[in-house]
Amino acid sequence: MRLRIALLVFAIGLAGLVWLGEARSEYADVVLNRNSEAAGMRPVIFPHWFHRIRFRCKVCHQELGFEMRAGANQVTMGDIYKGKFCGMCHDNKIAWGLENCDLCHSGRPGLPSGIYGGHKTLGPGKW
Amino acid sequence: MTGSGAVIRAALIFGAVLGLSTCGGEPPAKPGSVVNGTSGTPPAEPRTIRSTDGREWRKLGKDGLHDPENELLQYLQQPAEALGALPKGGPDGNQVDWIAALRDGAISPRTNVRPETKIMVLDLDIVFTETAGQPYVVFPHRQHTEWLDCANCHPAIFKAKRGANDFGMLDVLNGEYCGRCHGAVAFPLTECKRCHSRDWQTGG
Question: Cβ A49–B12 below 8 Å, yes or no?
């Protein structure tokens, strides 16, 4: 009996820890960490919700050429400096410029790249 | 079960109930202690922000994603601040009805950044009838082309020919076809009836 209670308490504690550590991102937040941490920067968090209030999908996914699949875009700072990808707007004219590193490089260390689910869904099945 | 076992179990349940009832609430204030002053431990900072209509969003830095140590975090807009002002959507996703937000002018996102870009909107519904007993799917081009360009879906994801795309719900759940966006960024697949919207028995 004691063992059972101890196990139960342990399980509840463990579930609590898992719950606390779980990412509760906003639906469709994208983490880009292919190069960031290897280059000594925090991972980038791209919030879809913030951008779609201001731009329709087609602006980034058609005019800028972002593939509609997280992980399919080889985004590098070199290209961004040349005005590609994020650099199309993050130029101090449409949006903040590239000197504000930590506004984009704002993720917790160790985050895996990918598209994240919301507070009730865990994101897409495959990907 | 033996008699003594039942007694032990009853005692344990009693103890657990007693423990829960005393641990759940705030400890009684000691005489002379300051409740809202500086001497007590400050209340834990809330992890969410609630809108007036009851929707709740995690604060950045409490979402498991943003680094709370980042000094510039304070300059980023909180989801609740922006999304709380938009029409309420389903309980999943962003909790925002993005179609209504655009239609009713709550948001007016830019259609292009290059002046030469052509903006195309197509008003054409496609009805999918092979739905295995579920209500038919009505796909409205208009709402989709308000947000997207034709080339976002055609021809790579969908052939631009009626009946030429052979796919099922399993593909969609796997992030293909409609699932390329729905379940990832557009309203999630838990909101079945937004797509499966035409009753095949009544045609309604």
Answer: no
Contact between B63 and A102 (Cβ < 8 Å): no
Q: Is the dihedral of CA A36, A38, A39, A41 positive or negative?
A: positive
Q: pTM of the predicted model, to two decimals? A: 0.80
Whether residue A74 lies within 8 A of chain B, CB to CB, comes out as no
Which residues 31-50 of A have a C-beta within 8 angstroms of B? 31, 42, 45, 47-50
Residue B133 tokens, joined: 């007993």
ipTM score: 0.82
Q: What does pLDDT average to in each consecutive run of 10 residues of chain A (127 residues)? A: 65 48 79 97 98 98 94 95 96 97 98 84 61
Per the CB < 8 A criterion, the answer to whether A70 and A112 are in contact is no
Q: By CA distance, what is A112's nearest residue in B?
A: B65
Model pLDDT for residues B51-66, shown as the tens digit of each residue: 999 999 999 999 999 9
**Domains of chain B, CATH where assigned:** 48-103 (no CATH), 125-198 (3.90.10.10)
Which of B185, B189, B192 should one mutate to test binding to chain A, selecting the residue with the greatest count of A CBs within 10 A?
Answer: B185
Domains and CATH numbers, chain A: 24-115 (3.90.10.10)
